[in-house]
Amino acid sequence: MSAGADIWSDAVTAAALFAVDPVGTGGICIRVGAGAVRDRWQDVLRSCFPPFIPFRKLPPSISEDRLLGGLDLAATLQAGRPVVQRGLLADIDGGVLLAVMAERLSPATVVHLNAAMDRGEIVVERDGVSRRASSRFGVVAFDEGLEDERTPSALCDRLAFHIDLQPLSNADICSAGVEAEDVMAARLRLGQVTLAADSIEALCHAAASLGIASLRAPLLAVRVARAAAGFDGEEVVQRTHLELAARLVLAPRATTLPSTPEQSAETAPDQEPGEADNRQEDDIPIEDLVLEAAQAAIPPDLLKRLQEKSLHGPRNISVGKQGQSRAGPRRGRPIGVRRGELGAGARLNLLETLRAAAPWQALRRGKQSGGTTRLLIRKEDFRIKRFKQQSATSTIFVVDASGSSALQRLAEVKGAIELLLADCYVRRDEVALISFRGQTAELILPPTRSLTRVRRSLAALAGGGGTPLSAAIASATTLAVAVRGKGHSPTVVLMTDGRANVARDGSGGRAVAEAEAHEAARQLCVSGIPAVVIDTSPRPQPQAEKIAVEMRARYVALPYADAARLSRAVQANMSLG
Description:
By secondary structure, the protein is of the alpha/beta class. Strands 16-15-14-17-18-19 form a six-stranded mixed β-sheet, sandwiched between helices. The chain has a five-stranded parallel β-sheet with strand order 2-5-8-1-9. Helix 21 links the parallel strand 17 and strand 18. Helix 1 packs across helix 11, helix 10 (about 195-210) packs parallel to helix 12 (about 240-250) and helix 18 (about 410-425) crosses helix 23 (about 565-575).
């Protein structure tokens, strides 16, 4: 069986086990784009459920009113009394919620979704109404994002199955499915399935050995093991069910390879040659079997990707493509309303104001003489619009013009900056230029939007001399902090080979210079300024990579960097939020 067929088989198995216990297993996070593979898997999923089970879509832009329910404004104004409407989470009780484009769910939606999954009910206390409703459901989160876009981790942590169908093609899909009658029989049998204490310990041991910090992972693995036993018609969880749970639940969450003692190649004195190879499976400890099953299912490049992400990935900063976000009352992207007073440029949200006033109309009309039928609005009903404004961005180029770079690479560095300037022009960034060589670092051009001045300064940039790297990083940090103090969002782009040989006081000595450069890099990291380190060596060297690690900056080797990669490296540091 091919690797793609194995992935498809696991996806079908996950759909069947999820159907056996939708609430207990939480759901499935499946990474797949729109297309034939996704359509076929959805057909398999629906075939696992009886027709009366509701399936509802959760769009990423859903409003809080539609999600939770609350006051039905039109019906309330017509009836003259509060009329409550049910939300999506109440309507889906006992069914399956399909979260399309789950990577774009807002933080508020994820919080409400997680709370409903944890409690099994929703509590609505807003708009003058208070209601409780049962809300027990399973979630299928369709992750359609790019490499840097993922389903929120808080939601993924509550979903037992993590499946990636992106590598699959139509040729990998087999026609085998699951009968809904088998799933319903497993559901009825689920309450009688038992699990031994040593089996639970084995799953917990495997989770700890794989570096899984969340306590939900072994709990979900227990649920999956019981569902697998019920599906197979067993009343006691067997080793094969534990191995299946470890493969489907624990392996995709692994963050490290288990550290197991090295097996000696020599046989024990009391063993006959070959006896160790003939051990029966029953003689192997159950925790070792479970761990081996999970380890065998770990993708070969998963841990490598995790390591690269931790070493070279950018810090998790709240920066958008146009700078940091901040709340404001006048302009920007709407992010909700707040109770407040008119004035100082505040903008009234009429619909939310009417919604706040509607529940109190009967009481206010009762106190009003003359039996008025007008809508009575009070000062405390006013709801003011809130907006999210984007601050301007500033890109600070720090260019190594020393002898080690100037001999071969300075021309290429200038060319790389020219590529990045085009993106800065599109984003309307301010650009600053710092050059360092000899004994000091010099601010050649303060932040400006005039790209013509930047190009002229860059063309006149001379090379030669020592490499005062620590002074350059310190100057960039000082400038970036000053820019941030003005409300802008700075990003530092350091272009160097990392071979520092001039200390802060201007004296020579590579050891002292490198130590001071690492200290300056740590100071930049502490300041929270996002950074990109572009290695300008003819061949990538460890010195520049170590500087990037100290900064927790994105590392890019210029020999392998084309225009698209340089652009992505800088934009990625400015687009994480």
